Automatic annotation (TrEMBL):
Annotated Pro residues bias: 219-244
SCP domain sequence ranges: 17-71
Name this polypeptide is given: SCP domain-containing protein
Entry-linked Gene3D superfamilies: CAP, Immunoglobulins
Length: 244
């Protein structure tokens, strides 16, 4: 939107209006078009506008070749607060636990130092942060792809069972302070019928160490006693239970 573009490029005014035209070779032709168009005329004559910026682009390979735009703003009005707008996935999406799901959103303002977007999976056990993003993919659009069977929260793997969940975005600072958050969107994960059955996680068994009988010391070189094998514990596993 015009307001989002003004915010993106650092204009802090509280009003945004835009007039566009294409196919006119000369500027007076574009202005005449705007003046004679009721919708554009209202934008041009709006008393709230105190500033204007005009742009022109020429593209000989484009259909209309000449492109004109006029942006109207008011630097004395209260600044427009940026809005966090979710794009994908749509509410109530159903996806298999093995499918990659695209999460995307629009945020027009540049991020402050240390700020990042955190994606949360909401369950009946609480909210689990599963991904962070600090750079847009293009312009003001942020996006990432995740599969439910490959999620982690902190240092623990998140085992997502099929069922109903919600996801939410939060803009957080380094200390975890939430600046803005989106609405929670429902999402349903289903079983992948073609996926192999999960392999049970092996349980670590501690070896039985038999104490060595005390022997009468004798003269001679010391004997090297082999150390018991090191037991490696499996990584922590958190099971996410669907919302009722």
């Amino acid at each position: 939107t015009p307001a989002e573009r003004l915010i993106q490029f650092g204009y802090g005014g509280g009003y945004a209006g835009e007039a566009t035209a294409w196919g006119f070779e000369y500027p007076h032709q574009a202005v005449e078009f705007w003046v004679n168009s009721p919708a554009h005329r209202r934008i041009i004559l709006n008393a709230a506008a105190t500033d204007v910026g005009v742009g022109f682009s020429l593209d000989l390979n484009a259909l209309s070749i000449w492109y004109w735009t006029a942006e109207f703003g008011n630097q004395f009005a209260a600044p427009t607060a940026p809005a966090l707008r979710l794009q994908e996935p749509a509410a109530d999406l159903e996806a298999m636990v093995t499918s990659l799901v695209t999460f995307s959103w629009n945020w027009p303002a540049p991020l402050a130092s240390g700020e990042q977007f955190v994606l949360y999976l909401q369950t009946n056990q609480g909210d689990f942060p599963v991904a962070t993003v600090s750079q847009p993919t293009l312009g003001t659009r942020y996006a990432l792809q995740l599969a439910a069977n490959d999620l982690s929260s902190g240092n623990a793997r998140l085992q997502v069972n099929p069922g109903n969940y919600s996801w939410q975005l939060r803009l957080e600072s380094i200390g975890g302070t939430v600046t803005v958050q989106s609405e929670a969107r429902p999402i349903t994960f289903t079983i992948d019928p073609d996926a192999p059955l999960p392999t049970p996680t092996p349980t670590a068994v501690l070896p039985t160490i038999t104490p060595t009988p005390t022997a009468t010391p004798t003269a001679g070189p010391p004997q090297n006693t082999p150390l018991p094998p090191t037991v490696t514990s499996p990584p922590p596993l958190i099971t996410a239970t669907p919302n009722p």
